Each structure stands twice: as structure tokens, then as C-alpha cells.
Amino acid sequence: MSYRDLREFIKVLEERGELKRVAAPVDAELEITEITDRVVKAGGPALFFENVRGYEVPVVTNLFGTLARMKLALGTEDLDAIGEELCALLQPELPQGLWDKLKALPRLAELSSFVPRVVRTGPCKEVVVKEPDLTRFPVLKCWPRDAGRFITLPLVFTKDPETGRRNVGMYRMQVFDARTTGMHWHIHKDGAAHYRKARAQGRRLPVAVALGADPATIYAATAPLPQGIDELLFAGFLRKEAVELVRCETVDLEVPAHAEIILEGYVDPEEQRLEGPFGDHTGYYSLADYYPVFHVTCITHRRNPIYPATIVGRPVMEDAFIGKATERLFLPLIRLQLPEVVDINFPVEGVVHNCVVLSINKAYPGHARKIIHAVWGMGQLAFSKLVVVVDANVNVQDMSEVWWRVFNNIDPRRDIILSEGPLDVLDHASPRFAYGSKMGIDATRKWPGEGHEREWPEDIVMSPEVKALVDRRWPEYGL
């Protein structure tokens, strides 16, 4: 099922016992974080804080904090099936003749039905505030050493100053005062590319921020989409219904009509300010650095708006399940380029960009090395600090099995690859900012020609006949 807005999703969560309302008064500074952290790590429900001290606006957290809730957010019981469908829509097939062109028409028609459409007005315009004041909203201070309060679940809308192409990304925003925030654009992200182009032109970059869109649109802002794919088109595909947009009041941008809160404004190309530290999804504080400043020129919102937030910190946190959705949805697209890949796992402790594990149908000597280098050249997987490759029969979702294979199957000199390249901005262990070393581990069985001169041993596996016998007689053993 698809959700028209955040409120419909909250209603469904509540009906299914997946949301808990908290009536007791709570503080937006640290207290909501501590409550949410305990609930996330216990696999608990989404939390709706009705009574935040000093504010009239409620806060909702942990919307995506279990895999079941992540599936519910995207309206599916099978994330892999969505990935296969997405792959079928996006794979580049060139029609060879008239019949092939005719067969492609239904696919094109289906895609066109997901294209976002602009409507005259929407609920996000119910209240228009031309004298904006961010302090009205219960923006959270999450961790004790955070530099201040941070907006943690924003959908940041920009347009390429040269092409006009839209981007929607999710970048944290430190609230400096009633009308300004930081804009934590990582250098590798499209929003930062738009900022650099505007800076080169000496122009302000218009920016709009949506808080509290429908869950598919929130997820789409985090997705590592192929170059040129509109996040809102992807959201429409997930929803099976186009996202409705309205034009902003003070900037030339369109935003989700059914969002809870819209912040309109601009980033000045010559202005930067010290932003951070911030307790990040790595489980460590990301360091303070200089980032662009977002100036708010107008706020629009629904009557009685809901403020959404996510808490990040030491895993497992809510973002782990967003990462798991990405893992399943984008596996078929990875297979388009690397068809030998069987499965992939982003271990939770690796916070997506620090470790990726792949199983492959190995076909020749050096095959695992080829996969390792290919991963380092593929989109956002290029930031992977550790790439582990195992054979097809290994369950990569079982990290105990993976580490057993790694610890037993490798000869360090032969099977470990060291390289250098770009790293995620949040990697604090690299000696230089966003650049450092990477390691690939070939934990596959070694073939002749891979430098292993001895016979490779077989796995210990009980015979099927004995397993079946013991299964049949198990009750007799009294165990």
C-alpha cells in the first residue's frame, strides 16, 4: 500500500501496534534521544511524543526502526521483489525493431505515471509564515557534546544551476538561530555539486527543506540512485502513485504538497560557518568543520504540524534498517553490472560505508579480486573501506559464517588487497579528510593459478541419509 502523507503512515502504525504515544512531558534536549535509543535497540515501536516541554508541536521518532516497519513504510512484504521490479524498469534495453519498441511502451507508460506533478496548493500551505522562526519547532539536541540542536530528517531540495535538474538529499542541519542553519553537504553529494556550481557563478542557491513527507519520499532522499534518476520519480515508483508538489512562496522550487513543514530559503555561496560536532551514525562524534549556511526566508506548514526526527548513534539505530532496505532494493542493479554477484550484506556495525560483504559464483582465478576492484568503482559503493568476497554457498547475512570463512580461508599476503581512494566524509580513522586506504579480502576457495600449491580441503558436511535418519528418529532420543 502507499501512503498519501506521514499522518496516514502514523495511523497505520498505530492500528498495527507499531506506534506508542508518550503523554508524559519530555525534553527535546537529550531526553527524547535517550528514550528513543533504548526503544530502538530493544526492537520497539515508533514513538509519538505528545508533550514536548516548551513546544506546541509533537515529535515522532523511530518511524523506520525495524525491518518490518521499513517494509511497511514501502508497502511491501518483500524488499527484494521491489528491487527486481526496479531493475526491470531501469535496465538499459535498446529496442531493435518495431515489435521491441511496442513492447517497451507499457514500461514507458508505467514510468510516466510516477512522474511528480505540480498541484495548485496542498496541506503544507495551510499556514504561511513570512516572518520565520525556527525556535517554534522542537528540534532535538541528541547527544551531550553536540554543538546544538540538529534537524535530522530533512529532505533538502535544490536544482542544478546549469541544467535545472532537481536533487533531493538528506543532510543534517544545525540550527544556529531563528533564521539560519548549517547545511552539512558532503563533498561527494549532488547538493554539494549544486552549491559549487552556484558559487562558481557567484549566485545564491535556492533551497527548500521538507519535514515530514510520506515515508517513501523520505526513503527516496537517502537512496543511492543512478546518475540522473529523480528521487521523486523513484518515490512515485515506490508509492505506485506520483508525488504531488506545490510551488514554494519565496524560491523557485517545488516541494511535497502533503509534507508537515516546509522551510524555504537560500545558501549564500560566500558564507560558511563552523558546524558540529554532532553525534553521528558511526557511533562517534563527527568533528566540527566549516559548512554553508542556510537562510530561511519563509516557513509553511500544516495546521497542528508534526515534527519528525531520527536519532543516529552507535548501532543498532534506525538508519540501520534504512540501509538494509537499500541493500535489498539495489542488489538487482548491482547484478546488472556484476551478474556473478549472488548476495550482498552491509553489516550493521559497518554503518553501510565501512564494510560490504558479497558472495559470488566464482568462475576463474582472480575473480574475487575483479569484484573487489569493481565495487571500488561503483557509485556510492566506491566509499567502501572493507570489501569481503566469499563463495556462492556462503550465507552473507550470517556474519558468523562469513568471519569463519575469512579467518580460515585467507593467506594474508596472497588474499588481502590494499588500495587508496575516496572515503566517506564521516570516516574519522583515515589520516586525511575523505581520502585514505581500503582493504579487500578474498575469502573464496583458492583455485589452481591463484598461488595455492596444496589441495584445498572440503567442508565438513554430514551425509543427507544420516541427517534424514536423525531427523526421523529425533523424538526417540529424548533430547
TrEMBL record:
What GO terms are given for molecular function? 4-hydroxy-3-polyprenylbenzoate decarboxylase activity
Which residue numbers delimit the 3-octaprenyl-4-hydroxybenzoate carboxy-lyase-like Rift-related domain?
Answer: 119-315
Per the record, the domain of life is: Bacteria
- Record-given protein name: 4-hydroxy-3-polyprenylbenzoate decarboxylase
GO cellular component terms, semicolon-separated: cytosol
> What Pfam families does the annotation carry?
UbiD, UbiD_C, UbiD_N
Task: Give the source species.
Answer: Thermodesulfitimonas autotrophica
Which residue numbers delimit the 3-octaprenyl-4-hydroxybenzoate carboxy-lyase-like N-terminal domain?
Answer: 10-85
InterPro entries recorded for this chain? HBDC (IPR022390), UbiD (IPR002830), UbiD-like_C (IPR049381), UbiD-like_N (IPR049383), UbiD_Rift_dom (IPR048304)
PANTHER family per the UniProt record, alphabetical:
3-OCTAPRENYL-4-HYDROXYBENZOATE CARBOXY-LYASE-RELATED, FERULIC ACID DECARBOXYLASE 1
Task: Describe the location of the 3-octaprenyl-4-hydroxybenzoate carboxy-lyase-like C-terminal domain by residue ranges.
Answer: 321-443
Q: Give the GO terms filed under biological process for this record.
A: ubiquinone biosynthetic process
Task: State the similarity comment.
Answer: Belongs to the UbiD family.
